[in-house]
Specification:
Shape of chain A: globular
Protein name (chain A): E2 ubiquitin-conjugating enzyme
Enzyme class (chain A): transferase
Strand content of chain A: 15-25%
Structural class of chain A: alpha+beta
CATH class of chain A: Alpha Beta
CATH topology of chain A: Ubiquitin Conjugating Enzyme
Distance between the termini of chain C: 35 Å
Distance between the termini of chain A: 37 Å
Chains: A alpha+beta, B alpha+beta, C mainly alpha
Oligomer: heterotrimer
Number of helices of chain C: 14
CATH class of the largest domain in chain C: Mainly Alpha
Largest sheet of chain C: 4 strands, antiparallel
Largest interface: A-B, 19 and 13 residues
Number of helices of chain A: 4
InterPro entries (chain A): UBC, UBQ-conjugating_AS, UBQ-conjugating_enzyme/RWD
CATH architecture of the largest domain in chain C: Up-down Bundle
Radius of gyration of chain A: 16 Å
CATH topology of the largest domain in chain C: Four Helix Bundle (Hemerythrin (Met), subunit A)
EC number (chain A): 2.3.2.23
Number of domains of chain C: 3
Radius of gyration of chain C: 30 Å
CATH architecture of chain A: Roll
Strand content of chain C: 5-15%
Keywords (chain A): ATP-binding, Nucleotide-binding, Transferase, Ubl conjugation pathway
Strand order of the largest sheet of chain A: 1-2-3-4
């Protein structure tokens, strides 16, 4: 089946006018499947890291949210060991007026402001709450170890 | 129809498996919860009732390669079992001898494989096959 | 043999007195619960109340048509008082869970707040934005096709009509949402009112929307619950406060024949309270693999070890090979059953108190669990077999009818007996979950005695029902079965009554804290 006009336009715009620190490239053999790279935001424990993600637009998109996952290991209270992300706009707060670009910007913002009160990775969240400095240090180590291109 | 990529398909299967599938007679999960590529899985099959397998619990390992689900996974029994589709030295399931592996399509999944194997155990030809003693493993 | 008691005030009121066709004995049980009733709980007429036993509650079956009528009456009333349209009145009622008094009170205080919370805009001119911006571009499909007549709520976010339709249809049809359908714009909290929904979707989706609204009414109102039986469109009303569901097991019977718990909507689980059922189910889900594993060895004759397949509901087994008679559940000799020595239902704690070894302890705890679990599942299994047997017997009877002058009606007593067996086995099942969590005391001995008496009676009845029917013995068998069925029913009453009173009086001491899952 032909790709909806919306997906084609979104892809074109992502190529023509990429958001700062974010790139998304569609697979040639599956135009709903994107390789994503997000640069760790400055002033965050992930600064200097290059994080790989994958994104998939299901059949119901944009009525249903895209599926997004980290492929690079990351120490973050809202991202679990398998790279799954706890972010409201990817679940119940999804709106069909959101786009790939806005989703990826939100993921980038999540890196700048971790939210240990709404955790996905419980042990990391615990660490973050009990000793934020130590947790940030671990996050920096992980960034150096796993997210350096 | 949108073609779901390997990783998102496996993620769906993982989440389904975590919730529990069907009547609980088959189950599966990642063998390493940290494995971001989700390649290696453990499966269990509870032997079907009114057969020689009744009340036995069989352990399996399943490997989903990079071409999954375009290509079927490779499946091996860890627990010893006597079935025509299972190599009696290694425990490997012969893909030519199990219907769902032979006629694989990308809508199938780990659940399909395990329930197909369980059906195989209960088939009239196999239900009374003599079995190795319970609890022994392939090496 | 359901007996519906028709009361003179409000339609038909059914008591859960449904199994008791001989409800002449001990009819006056004092219902002096010490929990508080909700404000709007109306005391039923005393005469009616006198009929209720400790394990019964007052309730009313409400068919779908009555629910719709009640809903529309409340709407009309509020609409009249506040001078609103019916649609707006029901939107307001919804956010107050159909509590009219509370709505009216709050509305008088600050109508603006309430209207906004319900997404109601009184002036229809304000409800919708009329003109899309000149540079309209739909943020959903990225189309700028102005022929598609864009649609927007008062927030001024416009999307094309086709996208709106798809959005609302998905919410209603796929997600079953009928409240809180917001403007599709991200972060916008303007609620789509009924009028906007009707304007955007096709009639089939509107129909679904209406059905969802009706269903939502029942889940909003605390005193209503849907009958969980598939295809049953009745609800049941029970005005007991939910906070008392740790002290009473609110079992109700729908006119469709389904018996369920008002507290948790699961099938009848008397005498166990909802919280205990929840704990038990979780435990069984966690431990069932182990349990399955261990149950393997219970399939051999305890005398000659030949394999035994259970083919009837009765637990009295006779080995075809060696004629050894034993109990399927405990594998003990049957001669000890049904007499004074019967103790199959009681877990014998044979470990001495100074056994400290952790392994032995956990093994003992597993054995203790398996003791109760096996008996729990066995009664379920047996009940199914009893049913099968009835179906078989019914066939036999049909055959006999063709060859003799016996009529089908004469086998009805078997159906009745199987019904008694089924409900008693259900009760027995849950007595094992109940006993598993019960701390040992003098009270528990009494409970276990009741359990044993019921179990012995059930097995005796089950055995009678299994006897082959013939023209010669039918009259005799019928007398015996009916007699036994009355007795079983009586034993079940005694057990439920004692368990329910104990619960209401706080007489039982449980080994785990029993929560109240119904409390909202």
């Amino acid at each position: 089946m032909a790709l909806p006009k919306r997906i084609i336009k979104e892809t074109e715009r992502l190529m023509a006018d990429p958001a700062p620190g974010i790139s998304a490239t569609a697979h040639e053999d599956n135009l709903r499947y994107f390789d994503v790279i997000i640069a760790g935001p400055t002033q965050s424990p992930f600064e200097g890291g290059v994080f790989k993600l994958e994104l998939f637009l299901p059949e119901e998109y944009p009525m249903s949210p895209p599926k997004v996952r980290f492929l690079t290991k990351i120490y973050h209270p809202n991202i679990d060991k398998l790279g799954r992300i706890c972010l409201d706009i990817l679940k119940d707060k999804w709106s069909p007026a959101l786009q790939i670009r806005t989703v990826l910007l939100s993921v980038q913002a999540l890196l700048s402001s971790p939210n240990p009160d709404d955790p996905l990775a419980n042990d990391v969240a615990q660490h973050w709450k009990e000793n934020e400095n130590a947790a940030i240090q671990t996050a920096q180590e992980w960034t150096r170890k796993y997210a350096t291109a | 129809m949108a073609k779901i990529p390997r990783n998102f398909k496996l993620m769906e299967e993982l989440e389904k498996g975590e919730k529990g599938i069907g009547d609980g007679t088959c189950s599966y999960g990642l063998s390493d919860g940290d494995d971001i590529m989700m390649s290696n899985w453990n499966g269990t099959i509870l032997g079907p009732g009114h057969t020689v397998h009744e009340n036995r619990i069989y352990s399996l390992k399943i490997h989903c390669g990079p071409s999954y689900p375009d290509m079927p996974p490779s499946v091996s029994f860890l627990s010893r079992v006597n079935l025509p589709c299972v190599n009696q030295t290694t425990g490997e399931v012969d893909p030519q001898k199990l219907t769902c592996l032979r006629n694989w399509n990308r809508n199938y999944g780990l659940e399909t494989v395990l329930t197909d194997l369980r059906r195989e155990m209960a088939s009239p030809n196999n239900r009374k096959l003599p079995q190795p003693s319970e609890g022994t493993m392939f090496n | 043999m359901s007996s519906a008691t028709v009361s003179d005030d409000d339609g038909y009121t059914v008591t859960s007195d449904f199994e008791d066709y001989h409800s002449d004995d001990d009819a006056s049980v004092d219902m002096d619960y010490d929990y508080e009733l909700t404000e709007d709980y109306e005391l039923g007429d005393e005469a009616h109340k006198q009929h209720l036993k400790a394990h019964e509650i007052e309730f009313r079956v409400v068919p779908l048509s009555d629910i719709l009528a009640e809903q529309s009456a409340a709407t009309t009333q509020v609409a009249g008082i506040l001078g609103l349209s019916a649609e707006n009145a029901s939107a307001l009622l919804r956010i107050f869970k159909w509590n009219k008094e509370k709505l009216l009170e709050r509305y008088m205080e600050s109508p603006e707040d309430i209207l906004q919370r319900a997404g109601v805009v009184l002036n229809p001119v304000q409800a919708l934005a009329w003109h899309p911006p000149n540079d309209f571009l739909c943020a959903i499909c990225f189309g700028d096709d102005s022929t598609g007549s864009p649609f927007g709520l008062r927030c001024g976010h416009f999307f094309c009509h086709a996208c709106y339709e798809q959005y609302v249809t998905q919410k209603v049809v796929e997600e079953g949402e009928c409240r809180d359908i917001l403007c599709p714009e991200s972060g916008c909290s303007v609620v789509m009112d009924e009028q906007a929904i009707r304007r955007t979707v096709k009639p089939t989706a509107i129909e679904k929307y209406q059905r969802l609204q009706d269903r939502a009414y029942v889940s909003d109102v605390d005193s209503l619950r849907w009958c969980p039986a598939p295809n049953c469109e009745n609800a049941v009303e029970c005005r007991l406060p939910h906070s008392c569901f740790t002290m009473v097991v609110p079992t109700v019977l729908c006119t469709c024949g389904g018996k369920f718990c008002f507290g948790c909507s699961l099938d009848d689980h008397q005498p166990a309270p909802c919280g205990l059922v929840k704990l038990w189910q979780k435990k069984c889900a966690d431990d069932s693999e182990t349990a399955n594993w261990i149950m393997t060895h219970t399939k051999e004759c305890s005398n000659c070890q030949s394999t035994i397949e259970k083919n009837g509901g009765c637990n009295h087994m006779t080995c075809r090979k060696c004629r050894h008679e034993f109990c399927w559940v405990c594998l003990g000799s049957w001669t000890e059953h049904g007499t004074n020595g019967y103790s199959c239902n009681r877990f014998e704690d044979s470990l001495s108190p100074d056994v400290q070894d952790q392994k032995a302890k956990s093994r003992a705890s597993l054995e203790r669990y398996l003791h109760y679990y096996n008996r729990f599942t066995n009664h379920e299994h047996s009940a199914n077999l009893d049913q099968d047997l009835y179906v078989q017997t019914e066939k036999t009877m049909e055959d006999m009818q063709r060859t003799s002058e016996l009529s089908w009606i004469e086998v009805q007593f078997l159906k009745e007996a199987v019904d008694v067996l089924t409900s008693s086995r259900t009760t027995l099942r849950w007595t094992y979950a109940f006993a598993f969590y019960l701390a040992s005391s003098n009270q528990t001995t009494l409970f276990e005695d009741n359990q044993r008496d019921l179990e012995v009676a059930v097995e005796a009845l089950s055995e009678l029902v299994e006897k082959p029917l013939g023209r010669d013995n039918i009259a005799d068998l019928k007398a015996q079965v009916l007699d036994k069925a009355v007795y079983v029913r009586g034993r079940r009453e005694v057990l439920l009554e004692d368990a329910a009173k104990g619960l209401a009086e706080g007489r039982w001491e449980f080994l785990a804290p029993i929560a109240n899952p119904a409390a909202r």
